[in-house]
Structures are given as C-alpha cells and as structure tokens.
Specification:
This protein is of the alpha+beta class. The protein has six helices and 21 strands. The strands form four sheets. Strands 6-20-19-21-16-15-14 form a seven-stranded mixed sheet, with helices on one face. A six-stranded mixed sheet has the order 1-2-3-7-4-5, sandwiched between helices. A hairpin with a 2-residue loop joins strand 17 and strand 18. The chain is globular and about 55 Å long. The protein starts with 5 loop residues before the first strand and ends with a strand.
C-alpha cells in the first residue's frame, strides 16, 4: 500500500458518532499538534480537569491542567519524531484570563530557556467544556535538515512575563509571535499613546487603524527585517479582533502596507477584553519567507471569490498552502444552500461549500484536501462542531484529520455564517 504524504498522529474517535480525529500530523520535516488540551488517551477530559472532593488542598487546578496539556503536546510531538525544543510556533486559547499565568508558569518549567513564538487569546469556549486552555503547536523534526535560528531584533519590545522568542527562522520560513500595539520594555507601558485616540478626544484618528498601523510599523516590520524577511514576503497572518466590525477599517491599513501582496489572512473575533492588555483591539501574528531563500510565494485559488476584497484565497509557500479564513459566502452573502432553519443542516451546507472551495484550490496547487496538516474551525456555537465534522467524514471517510475547534463570538465576517475554516495543506 502506498504511504500517505501526511501521517495522522495518535488518532482518536470523538463524540457519539465516533469521528476519526488526529491529535496531530506529520508531513516532510514538519509536525503539527492540533487542539491540544488536558485529555485522556481517548480525547476525553483528563483527571486534571476535575477538582475532586478537596479542590483547595492540592496544586491550583489551572496549573495541573497546563501540566497535563503540555504532556499531551509532548506525546504528539514525540509521535512525530520531535519535541518542544524544536517548536517554531504555538497558539493558545483561554476562556478565562486567570488561567494564563499558570500556563506561563508551566511553559517555563517545560520549555526552559527556549519558548517558541507564541500567541495567547481569550475566547468563549473550547471543544471540551471543562477545559480552561487549548494549544496548537508547529515544530520541525531534528532529522529534517531545517535549521532553527531564534532572532531577537534590536529595539523590538516583547511581553515581560511570556518569555517567548519573538521570531524564529526555520530555513526559509520566518515565524513571528503575536503582537499588540504595546510599548516600553516588556510591553509594560500598555497600548502605545500613538496607537490611541488622545484622551478626551472623539476623533483624532480611528482606534483600530492606529493600533494596526502601530503593530505593522513597530512590531511586524522590525521582526521580519531582523530575520531577513519583509512585508512583501509575508505569506500568512492571523488577525484577532475584539470587534469583527473593525475589519473594513483594518483592511485599509493592511492594504496600505501590503499593497497587492496581502498575505493569506484570517480574521478571528475574540472576547472583549480578549488580549493581555485589556483595552487592546487587535493582535497579529505572521509567517513570512526569507527574501534571500529559494522558497517563493505563489497565490492560488484565483478562480474562487475571496471573503475580503484584495485578499488571496490562499498562498502557497514551498510545500504548504496557507488559506485565508474561509466562510461560506458569495456575492449574495451566506450561500443559498446554507440558509436552513436547522443549524445542523446549515453548518453542513456551509462546510460542503468550504470543502469544495478548498479542494479546488488544492488541486490547482497539485495536492488534495486529504493532505491537510492544520485545520482550525472557529464556530459561533460549538454545538455545530460534530455536525460540521460530518461533512469532513463524507469527504474523506475513515481519514483521521488534525481538526481543532473553538467557539468565538458572533458574527463572523459575513452575516449568517456560523463557521470559519483556517487551513494548512501539505503539497508533496
């Protein structure tokens, strides 16, 4: 039997319909851990998520949960032939901000002096309702030939308590941590004055545009230039917003800086407050390519409509296709097939549309949706997660896929859409 280009790692079966889900994926020299939480080997809640009869007599619950979550992450990475010392990117999600310091405590204990570029965001709910944190990890295998280089660009402020490396190069790939419009050493000055409307004024700029411009000019550009990359070589961004209605104003700034080279961009609504600084309106992480490298950017999906004007449907970077955030919308809004009264029917129709679009884009790049290595589903209601998975099961029966799911505040980019898909697909 011919081996698959993407190996599913530690598959489990979730829910009453026993959907096959991979805890991670390995492709070439890369390993992806998806939707990592404090779980048991079957994907259910681990004992650390339960307080027991004496909840105040042991270590803090969030500390125990973080310890178990990191153990689960390490299990996936080890199954893929690597470990946390070879991570290049992590993303964390928390329903309660009070869990974050315990996560940081455990991360320092587990990772030591090297913590990969990181983004931590507050969202309403995780797939397991008992969970207080979830994590995504991208890492490289030590036998891959990919050389990791931590980069500390001069003058780039990073959060004081997070301890992560702001930028990491993995050969031609450049991974930039999530940044806010913060200032002063350790980001301890809060949101920079130039990223805010002056106190007492109703209009002297637009807050989201001031923050976005500050992040690009004072965080992303120095981070990229310190690693031999630039805005023109960016391939993928995740933009977290406290108010999804800020997207049009944000996009004016985005287009000003990127021109016709906008990276594949996913907009994710957050809680409000949703960030380390309570009054922040957005946080951005970025992936780019070294300008002197041989890996080049190519936009794909030109025959399909992008959600935002001027944005690519997806960008190919070497062996990966990185998609913009996809919702099931056309020129008339939510696609007609998804305008059903029953939410389970609607979300399956949305997913069918999204998977059709993604499959066409994959074929254009010479691959298939079966080679997905990172699948994030952002739902406005997590009750739709398992109905959404039925679309995957019909499309790729028996194939365990590295799917993670979060609940985010509605609405999404297009009214009526209740699921957004963020995909990475491997091109053999």
């Amino acid at each position: 039997m011919k081996s698959m280009p993407v190996e599913a790692l530690l598959p489990v079966q979730l829910g009453p319909e026993r959907f096959p889900v991979a805890r991670g994926a390995r492709a070439g020299g890369w390993v992806f851990a998806s939707g990592v939480m404090a779980t048991d080997p079957k994907g259910g809640p681990a004992a650390e998520l339960k307080d027991g009869a004496r909840p105040l007599s042991s270590e803090p619950r969030w500390y125990r949960e973080a310890s178990r979550m990191f153990q689960c992450a390490e299990e996936v990475l080890h199954a893929g032939g690597t470990d946390l010392s070879r991570a290049v990117r992590t993303d964390q999600y928390f329903p309660d901000w009070r869990a974050v310091p315990f996560f940081h405590q455990v991360r320092r204990e587990r990772c030591g002096s090297y913590i990969a570029p990181s983004t931590s965001i507050l969202e309403p709910a995780l797939r397991l309702p008992q969970a207080g944190m979830a994590m995504e990890v991208i890492a490289v295998r030590p036998d891959s030939g990919l050389q990791l280089t931590p980069v500390y660009p001069p003058g780039l402020d990073v959060p004081a308590t997070s301890s992560f490396v702001p930028v990491v190069k993995a050969d031609d790939f450049v991974f930039v941590a999530g940044f806010l419009a913060a200032w002063k050493p350790g980001d301890l000055g809060g949101i920079a004055p130039e990223a805010k409307v002056p106190e007492g004024h109703l209009w002297k700029g637009n807050r989201i545009q001031l923050e976005a411009d500050y992040i690009v000019r004072n965080k992303l550009k120095p981070a990229l230039e310190g690693a031999g990359a630039s805005l023109a070589s960016a391939v993928k961004a995740q933009v977290y917003l406290a108010d999804i209605n800020d997207v049009p104003a944000f996009n004016q700034v985005w287009a000003h800086h990127f021109g016709d080279r906008i990276p594949a961009t996913t907009f994710v609504p957050t809680l409000n407050p949703g960030f380390a600084i309570a009054d922040a309106r957005c946080e951005i992480n970025l992936i780019a390519l070294a300008e002197a490298g041989t890996t080049k950017r190519n936009d794909v999906g030109s025959g399909s409509p992008a959600v935002c004007d001027g944005h690519p449907v997806a960008v190919r970077a070497g062996n990966f296709i990185c998609f913009s955030g996809l919702v099931a919308a056309d020129e008339s809004g939510l696609v007609k097939a998804a305008r059903a009264k029953r939410s389970d029917v609607s979300v399956q129709a949305q997913m069918d549309y999204l998977l059709d679009l993604a499959e066409r884009t994959c074929r254009e790049a010479g691959t298939t949706l079966a080679n997905a290595v990172r699948i994030q589903q952002f739902h406005t209601n997590l009750k739709e997660f398992y109905p959404a998975c039925r679309a995957w099961k019909r499309r790729l029966p028996g194939r365990p896929l590295p799917i993670s799911a979060l609940q985010v505040p509605g609405p999404l980019l297009v009214p009526g859409c209740t699921v957004q898909l963020d995909l990475w697909v491997y091109v053999p």
